[in-house]
Amino acid sequence: MAYYSKRSVKEHVYQDTMVWQCSACHCWSRKEFVTAEEPVCPLCSSAMVEEMKNIRVE
Fold first, then answer.
1. 46 FRET partner, CA 20 to 30 A, in 8, 14, 24, 29?
2. How many whole angstroms from its chain centre is CA 42?
3. How far is residue 17 from each of residues 5, 33, 49, measured CA to CA in Å?
């Protein structure tokens, strides 16, 4: 006889968040973690632009 436990399945929570997105590659960072006025990409040194991104928060 097989017994299966019931797991509570939580749905992921997504939220629109302001981020700095690299203009050349896929690198991005939340705006709240960047202190520079005009940040540059840490991977390719390209300019970063502000964008809204729907990211998972929970």
1. 14
2. 16
3. 36, 12, 14
